[in-house]
Amino acid sequence: MDETINPFVTLKPTEERKGMSKMYFFINDYSEGAHAKVLQALTETNFEQTVGYGMDEYCAKAADLIRSKVASPNSAVHFLVGGTQVNLTVLSAILRPYQAVIAAKTGHIFVHETGAIEATGHKVLAVDTPDGKLTPKLILPVVKGHPDEHMVQPKVVFISDATEIGTLYTLAELTALSQFCQKYHLYLYLDGARLATALTGEGNDISLPDLARLTDVFYIGGTKNGALFGEALVINHPALQKDFRYSIKQRGGLLAKGRLLGLQFLALMQDDLYFQIAAHANQMAQRLQSGMAAQGYGFLTHSATNQIFPIFPDALLPELQSVCRFEVWGKADASHTVVRFVTSWATKEETVEGFLHALAGFKV
Amino acid sequence: MDETINPFVTLKPTEERKGMSKMYFFINDYSEGAHAKVLQALTETNFEQTVGYGMDEYCAKAADLIRSKVASPNSAVHFLVGGTQVNLTVLSAILRPYQAVIAAKTGHIFVHETGAIEATGHKVLAVDTPDGKLTPKLILPVVKGHPDEHMVQPKVVFISDATEIGTLYTLAELTALSQFCQKYHLYLYLDGARLATALTGEGNDISLPDLARLTDVFYIGGTKNGALFGEALVINHPALQKDFRYSIKQRGGLLAKGRLLGLQFLALMQDDLYFQIAAHANQMAQRLQSGMAAQGYGFLTHSATNQIFPIFPDALLPELQSVCRFEVWGKADASHTVVRFVTSWATKEETVEGFLHALAGFKV
Amino acid sequence: MDETINPFVTLKPTEERKGMSKMYFFINDYSEGAHAKVLQALTETNFEQTVGYGMDEYCAKAADLIRSKVASPNSAVHFLVGGTQVNLTVLSAILRPYQAVIAAKTGHIFVHETGAIEATGHKVLAVDTPDGKLTPKLILPVVKGHPDEHMVQPKVVFISDATEIGTLYTLAELTALSQFCQKYHLYLYLDGARLATALTGEGNDISLPDLARLTDVFYIGGTKNGALFGEALVINHPALQKDFRYSIKQRGGLLAKGRLLGLQFLALMQDDLYFQIAAHANQMAQRLQSGMAAQGYGFLTHSATNQIFPIFPDALLPELQSVCRFEVWGKADASHTVVRFVTSWATKEETVEGFLHALAGFKV
Amino acid sequence: MDETINPFVTLKPTEERKGMSKMYFFINDYSEGAHAKVLQALTETNFEQTVGYGMDEYCAKAADLIRSKVASPNSAVHFLVGGTQVNLTVLSAILRPYQAVIAAKTGHIFVHETGAIEATGHKVLAVDTPDGKLTPKLILPVVKGHPDEHMVQPKVVFISDATEIGTLYTLAELTALSQFCQKYHLYLYLDGARLATALTGEGNDISLPDLARLTDVFYIGGTKNGALFGEALVINHPALQKDFRYSIKQRGGLLAKGRLLGLQFLALMQDDLYFQIAAHANQMAQRLQSGMAAQGYGFLTHSATNQIFPIFPDALLPELQSVCRFEVWGKADASHTVVRFVTSWATKEETVEGFLHALAGFKV
Q1: Could you tell me which of C165, C185, C141 has the C-alpha nearest to residue C308?
Q2: Which B-chain residues 235-254 have CB contacts (< 8 A) with chain D?
Q3: Contacts of A71 (CB under 8 A, 6+ apart)
Q4: Are D55 and A5 an interchain contact pair (Cβ–Cβ within 8 Å)?
Q5: Is pLDDT above 50 for C14?
Q6: Rounded to a whole number, what is the distance in Å from the CA of A144 to chain B's nearest CA?
Q7: Are the C-beta atoms of residues A71 and A209 closer than 8 Å to each other?
Q8: Is there a contact between B93 and D97 if contact means CB atoms under 8 Å apart?
Q9: pLDDT level of residue A17 (50, 70, 90 thresholds)
Q10: Average pLDDT over residues A36-61
Q11: Are C152 and C127 a contacting pair, CB within 8 Å?
Q12: In whole angstroms, what is the distance from residue B259 CA to residue B254 CA?
């Protein structure tokens, strides 16, 4: 879902696309460049020379800073380029060949990574959820249903916060999951591709130290929140830390100029820039959501973060697409369609207001 | 399901088990040895010497005989030891790394092979079915739902006949599936672990030549119908035949004394012994089914083959287990349980009648 | 090498092959059937019914008997069908994804298993040896040469006894290897496809209990010494025993009628039949070797077991092939060829003498 | 070798490292940042919004430009982040499971990618070479030595230009390899991590169009020549182009902000900046090489590119390491060590001269 290229939005010839910058762009949060401070850090250090593969001083400092922010001095921190890479590297490193990972059916690893986890040899056991979130009650039947050696052995629980459909875990929910995992000897892994907007989302009560305390592994996503690219992986469980650089290298994820990753996370985590800009993304989305609601549109689900899922009459779609880029999510009913709008740290207030104004004009 | 060891049936100390031969044994169809003619063939040729790895004369003859029986002179025939081995070898040989196989949720490869297919790198896309059978209507959404490179590419349709829950395909259903697969450039693969009882089952109208004509690959199961072990793989699609012995060897399936496989299939396929003994297995199951029905018991589904799924009151289970070995399939309702009884080519009429008599005595 | 089909020996049409039984057959030791006592055990129990997948009483008894013979009451014993299957199942279960196995360049897993180990994701680090045997001195540079995460991490040492070229380890050599492996945190795995002829070979001073004491995992080969098929895997290291049945099932090696394996090993291990018949195989080979030497032929290496490697003038090969089947091993020099003759438990004295007599007649 | 972290050069505490910028830095060519024009392109477009995953206009333009430069309008061009990622993605996409890749023993994939190729299931068949270059004569025995299904099937020839030890292919050599591969139905794949310095190296007579004409797949390395990161993959053989984006995504190599890759290659390939800056790197290395030679030092091999391999007395190493960072390559003899110096597009003339001056002072 997330990464599906909208079939309505095909590449146009160059001439036509010139006008594109005037379009309102809500297609995703990785369409942006980097935050100015990130770019500045890269530029200022561009002519320095460092050792490669993440063994440089910037990576060391960024890892220290993250360990401090998550209040977990013994956690291991690694920097990788992208989310699918992190997921496949972590899961293939954690699991024995006959072990499997449990995920929501909407989980990114289940549908949108081209079988990347299976390609490393592991089954993804998918669970239907009402809201993209796993709970002990949903997981227990999977564990009980795999009792012997004729089936895979469930070993990791994979969750995302924010989920792939924009919902958030509460601290109570995360704590319950963590306790359940301990009881059943499962590892808890949290995909934080959109962790920034989750932790600054409406109603969130989870902190970075909570994540380090309650999960075995999680990652802090940079790509979708201010970095050019990069995800900071935090391995809390000591037994999972051993030899992890071997896994990164083997899966092609050890960036030669590793310092680029350290530099970006240093810039983002200093003075909590990471969270400030995520809060902006959320505000822009909430303004869009309330503005659409005021115009009478409904939603697939009430979103607390930077992805919103309005429902439009099918007849309105062509007009919308003439001024705006977004993703078609699926049919709501015979004559309505759910779409996804995503804002980012770089979304301007005038863009949001401009779009809402245009939308009012289209109103059927 | 199929291969789950019944938790009620744990191994007993030797003394106790001595009496076991007097128990009625309906736990599965691979609990038997080999048909007398198979054993005779192995015994008579025991002191011959042949070249290894299936390059011997017996394998050549058995392959010729099978090609003749399936009326497909250009099919490639290989002999392997067991069903999971065949499934993982075939699917890993057919699929490109990013391609996936579609199966019913009850399909053997989805749950009961310990992730063997995923261990070779491929996702199994599971489909809910009412009766264990796939149809074009059930498959189409899977194909449509995987439109681009962010998801796996469906490429093989996996079906079983008889299915894992004892149902049968009709010729019309198989023809429709075959046409659908051709239209969507999918390969059709049929798991024939219980092909013998399927093709002799009540209402079956499919023949071996139909299978060769309508599928790209299928196998003729020996383990569950008269052989000590062994499955005869028939590759009909020319493009899938190339280099197949490399795949068998790499996955550990090339039996050193390959002649053992050729010999067994020669014995089974000559004079259609294979089908004669399967018909007996079906008759025994049908007698059990009608006998239980006459005593007032219901069934999960009406079975046409050698697996039947009666429903008993929970209170009756301990008594049943005192005289009989079978598999618990699952709960029917709060106070009833579905169980599975399986007959085989070796099941004796007196065993069936004896059990039915005992059951009548237990009746609550 | 071992399993290479000799290109000189192609399958002949049936008519021609009728005379083949009169040929002297030294092509390999898996060309035979089963020892009479093994066949008898299978026949006598053929109509018994047992639970499947190796959970039956015969497997339990055979495992107990083997634990007793190897004097290692806490070893886990599993039965699998063939050697490549055992190797790939064990190595993929033991190794983490980035770890590798060290083997002699002549090691079966390096060349003759169609990349079966690599297909499970692991590199085989090959070492040149003069005699097919690994030593601490040969292994140390491999360990030292893989110091960091840019390379695989050596973790298992794979050896065969007898080796693929017929040589034997001494107890002192095996002890030195075992100590080296402990020091460097490597697992020691011994492939016993030809263990029977090794332990009864000229000059052998290793016993089954030595193997259990000095290796982490080894297997007792049945296929090449009296069984129809089957290898008994013995896992001595407690940490490697956990969940091993999952690995067997996932790799397609869990035989449905597991009792066939238990029965065969029961028959072979009782009264040391296994070693008695291996001693015969060795005697036949030694008679061949001394007989050829007496006729003036040299050897690639002096063999202590049932594989011998005589060197013949190229000009003699056509005559040899007219009466005898064997494997061409490689060129000795411009005009001479090394060939391999293998005897077995079933080789008759008259066959050996008959061949030597014929050879004397051919003498150039 | 290439990527081995020099054990002599461990990370120092921050205080000490402050002085490091005054050290002469020849440790590798990926220690640098990006060329100013690359950085400018990233900065100028930073606030543009584009679709993700390489479907943007910059990638389209860069691919067009590269197709034009390589004079192969039907080649497919993809952009990936790093070299190991490219190698494992290409090879796992090209090979059937039982097929293998032939490489020089010094080939990057054989030792320095932590078994990345094997982790995708494929054996790397390594060949001893005098100079890091493969030839038909060296490859033929590998092809002939793998005749049947008991061994892997060689299918790809992997070469690097420049090789991992700094040598270059000539057009005649590449043509011979290409013809050999066609004859034996092998694919020819060229790793171009250091293609820039190769094509501008002393004595080179190969052009980009030659590569497109003579190889099936090759890549143009950006990481080591002016980019922050990025490799441009060029797939010439039509049969290998199909569905390649699936492979990239599955292996974790599809960069969300794909435009970063397109932008960098646009900047590098315009006006042949890519080759101009590589020529500078070569000049700096050649000046180092001749300067060292003038001071009486020998070399492992005469280098034509930006990696040189001088031999120093062991006693000199501590002094060298006090002013200079480089990699220790191995022992030359009992008292001498081969080291590697690498220059880059960013190496300053004053750095080279400064170092040579210092070296003269150290002279033993």
Answers
A1: C165
A2: 243, 245-250, 254
A3: A208, A209, A212
A4: yes
A5: no
A6: 13
A7: yes
A8: yes
A9: very low
A10: 96
A11: no
A12: 11
Chain A CB contacts of D346 under 8 Å are 47
Taking a C-beta distance cutoff of 8 angstroms, is the pair B266, B274 a contact?
no
CB distance B120–D97 less than 8 Å?
yes
D31-76, pLDDT tens digit by residue? Answer: 899 999 999 999 999 999 999 999 999 999 999 999 999 999 999 9
Rounded to the nearest 10°, the torsion over CA B186, B187, B190, B191 is -100
Which amino acid, A296? Answer: G
- Asked if the Cβ–Cβ distance from D121 to C119 is below 8 Å, we say yes
Q: Tens digit of pLDDT for each residue in A133-158?
A: 999 999 999 999 999 999 999 999 99
Q: What is the mean pLDDT of chain A?
A: 93
Which of D57, D114, D252 is closest, CB to CB, to A249? D114
Give the pLDDT confidence of B167-212 residue by residue, as tens digits.
999 999 999 999 999 999 999 999 999 999 999 999 999 999 999 9
Q: What is the pLDDT of residue D301?
A: 86
CA distance C326 to C288: 13
Dist. CA A153–CA A158, nearest whole Å: 15
Q: Which residues of A touch D228 (CB under 8 A)?
A: 42, 257, 260
Which pLDDT tens digit goes with each residue over D84-122?
999 999 999 999 999 999 999 999 999 999 999 999 999
B96 close contact with D: CB closer than 8 A: yes
Q: Is the Cβ pair B243, D120 closer than 8 Å?
A: no
Q: Which amino acid is at C316?
A: L
CA atoms within 13 A on the CB side of A32: 23
Number of alpha carbons in the 13 Å side-chain half-sphere of residue A240: 27
Distances (CA, A) of C86 to A110, B251, C196, C222, C233: 32, 11, 17, 12, 8
Mean pLDDT over the full length of chain B: 93
Run of H or E including C333 = strand C327-333
- On whether ipTM exceeds 0.90, the answer is yes
CB atoms within 10 A of CB A271: 10
Residue ranges and CATH numbers for the domains of chain A are: 14-33+274-362 (3.90.1150.10), 36-272 (3.40.640.10)
Q: How confident is the model at residue B3 (pLDDT cuts 50, 70, 90)?
A: very low
Asked if the C-beta of A149 comes within 8 angstroms of chain C's C-beta atoms, the answer is: yes
A118 CB within 8 Å of a chain B CB: yes
Interface-testing mutation among C250, C251, C255, with chain A (most A C-beta atoms within 10 A):
C250
Q: What is the pLDDT of residues B281-301, one digit of tens each?
A: 999 999 999 999 999 999 998
C33 touches chain B (CB under 8 A): yes
Region A237-261: mean pLDDT is 98
A236: closest CA among A206, A207, A216, A221? Answer: A216
What span, in angstroms and rounded, lies between the C-alpha atoms of D248 and D245? 5
Q: Are strands D324-325 and D24-25 parallel, antiparallel or unpaired?
A: parallel
Reply yes or no on whether the pLDDT at D6 is more than 50.
no
Q: What are phi and psi of D334, to 5 degrees?
A: -60, -30
Q: Return the bridge partners of B83, or none.
A: none
Contacts of A156 (CB under 8 A, 6+ apart): A91, A94, A95, A99, A100, A101, A102, A186, A187, A188, A189
pLDDT computed for residue B11 by the predictor? 33
Cβ contact (<8 Å) for C5 and B53? yes
| Structural tokens at position D173 | 């050599």
| Minimal Cβ distance to B252: which of C48, C84, C249 | C84
Q: C25 and chain B: CB distance < 8 Å anywhere?
A: yes
Burial of A361 (0-12, 13-18, 19+ CB in 10 A): exposed
Residue B258 token pair: 């390959």
**Sequential DSSP letters for A186-253:** -EEEEE-TTHHHHHTSTT----HHHHHHH-SEEEEE-TTTT-SS-EEEEE-SGGGTTTHHHHHHHTT-
